Amino acid sequence: MLNEKDLKILEILKQNAKLTIKQIAKKAGMPATTIYNRIKRMEKSGVIKSYTVTLNSKKMGKNVSAYILITVDYKLLKEIKTTQHELAKKLSMHKFVEEVDMITGTHDVILRVAVNDMDQLDEFVTKYLRNVDGVERTQTLVILSRF
Q1: Which domain holds residue 75?
Q2: CA 15, CA 11: separation in Å to the nearest integer?
Q3: What is the pTM of this model?
Q4: Phi, then psi, of 75 in degrees rounded to 5
Q5: Same domain, 97 and 136
Q6: Per-residue model confidence as pLDDT tens digits over 5-29
Q7: What CATH number should be reported for the domain holding residue 32?
Q8: DSSP character for 57?
Q9: Which of 54, 66, 105, 146 has the most CB atoms at less than 10 Å from its CB?
């Protein structure tokens, strides 16, 4: 069970996971040994799954980002003996795909993609995505700004 100290440490790590134990301790107002032990406990228990890098897609030349809503063809998936989870994992392997989530509601899967330009987005959606077995329909939402 997490307490206020754990939540404070997690909030600091969410803002900048690159900080040292000493820097986190200073920001949290706790001893470094306490910070170290709590972080190790949260890693061991799975509260902290990993540390990652947040990339700036635009600075990497990927000027267009979009969310793509996918409706899955469950009948076809059953015929080809695959699952929605396997489909989602396959989609996550594409170089333009940054994130894949299975969702509830009208659609089944949502992708976040980053591409160089609209032509590349068009090609990804119409030539790749709509030809993946199990993808019945797509709806593309271009991201105007990210905060």
Answers
A1: 57-142
A2: 6
A3: 0.80
A4: -60, -45
A5: yes
A6: 999 999 999 999 999 999 999 999 9
A7: 1.10.10.10
A8: G
A9: 66
Give burial (CB, 10 Å; 0-12/13-18/19+) of 114: buried
**Which tens digit of pLDDT belongs to each residue from 107-145?**
999 999 999 999 999 999 999 999 999 999 999 999 999
Residue 92 and residue 71 in one domain = yes
* Extended beta strands in the chain, E state: 64-72, 97-102, 109-115, 135-142
- Taking the CA atoms of the chain, what radius of gyration do you get in angstroms? 20
| Same-domain check for residues 62 and 115 | yes
CA distance 72 to 84: 8
Burial class (CB in 10 A: 0-12, 13-18, 19+), 75: exposed
Angle between helices 21-28 and 4-15 (to 10 degrees): 120
* Both tokens assigned to 92: 């996550």
**High-pLDDT (> 90) share of the chain, %:** 91
The verdict on residue 8 lying in a domain is yes
